Amino acid sequence: MSTEKITGAVVRYLDAVANGTADDIAACYAPDGTLEDPVGSEPRRGHAAIREFYAGLAGARRRTELLAIRVAGDSAAFHFHVRTELADQTFEVEPIDVMTFDEEQRITSMRAFWSPGDMRVAR
Amino acid sequence: MSTEKITGAVVRYLDAVANGTADDIAACYAPDGTLEDPVGSEPRRGHAAIREFYAGLAGARRRTELLAIRVAGDSAAFHFHVRTELADQTFEVEPIDVMTFDEEQRITSMRAFWSPGDMRVAR
Known about the structure:
Chains A, B: Pfam families: SnoaL_2. The first copy, chain A, is of the alpha+beta class. In chain A, 25% of the residues lie in helices and 43% in strands.
C-alpha cells in the first residue's frame, strides 16, 4: 500500500472527526476494527462499539489539524490537534495516534497515545 | 509508572543515540527487548542484535532532538529529529517512535515509523 493512500485515509479520518457523524467516523474503520483510546484502556471492537465511542462528539463544534505523519508498511503514526467545543467547556489535546489499515484503507486498529495531563480545558 | 519517568527514559535514549556507543544505546533496552526499525521490517531481539543495529553509528557525528512526546500507561510515542554525519554524507529524518518500558524504565519494545521518502540526504 502506498504512503499516499495511507496518508489520504488519515486525512479522511481527521475530516470525519471534525465534520462527520459518529457513523461517518465509524465507517473509516474496518468492520472488526479496534480502537484503544487512550493506550492502556480496554480496546473497543467493531462498528457499534466504535460508533458509541464517537457519539459524545455529536453537537460539539470540532476542529482537527494534522501536525506530522509517518507511514511505514501498512501502518501510520501521526501527531494531530483536536479541539472540541461543548456547551460550557472546550477541550484541546494533541495526541499521537498509531493506525493499521487493510487493503481498502479502512482502519483495522487505532491506538491513541496521550495522558490526562496533555488535555487543556477552557470554560 | 509515571509520565515523568517514561519521558526521562526517552530523553536518556535520545542522548545515548547522540552521544553514546552502541553498548550505551543497547543498555537502554531490557535484555530481551525488541527493535523494529522501520515498522514492517523483521524485529531484532536482545542486546547483541540491538547493539549490531546501532554499531553503524560509530564514528558518525550525531544530533537528536525531541520534538513531541505523548505517554500512555507504560508506553510512549514520540516525534524526534536525528541527524547523522558520515564522512561523505549527512542523513536527516524525523521518525515517530513507539516504545514500551519495564518497571526499571528499560525499553521492552521499540517500533520506528518512517518511510525511505522521509530521509533527507546531503553530501
